[in-house]
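Why should sequence recovery work at all? Because a backbone constrains its sequence more than one might expect. Tight turns favour small or flexible residues, buried strands favour hydrophobic ones, and helices have their own preferences. The token representation captures these environments compactly. In the example below, the structure is given first.
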């Protein structure tokens, strides 16, 4: 009987410590998951902005405007030369 009581005296505090330790781990992991979710959301928003920027830069109207600024002009069909790919 004394052995059983002795085991209980040792086991109960150990189990309580283990419970507190696990709770601490859980809250740490919960904070890390929340931080990762925030990072992911920021990355998604940045990706959206970059895609929008790419679509603006690739628009034909913008390319034509920039080409004209550089002194380029549209070529006519009589100015085109077709080059055969095979030698």
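From this structural description, the recovered sequence reads:
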């Amino acid at each position: 009987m004394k052995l059983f009581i002795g085991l209980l005296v040792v086991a109960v505090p150990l189990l309580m410590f283990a419970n507190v330790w696990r709770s601490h781990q859980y809250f740490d992991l919960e904070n890390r998951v929340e931080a990762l979710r925030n990072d992911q959301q920021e990355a998604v928003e940045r990706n959206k902005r970059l895609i929008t920027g790419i679509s603006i830069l690739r628009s034909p109207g913008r390319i034509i405007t920039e080409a004209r600024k550089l002194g380029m002009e549209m070529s006519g069909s009589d100015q085109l030369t077709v080059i055969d790919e095979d030698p």
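A few observations help interpret the result. Residues 34 and 68 are 50 Å apart (CA to CA).
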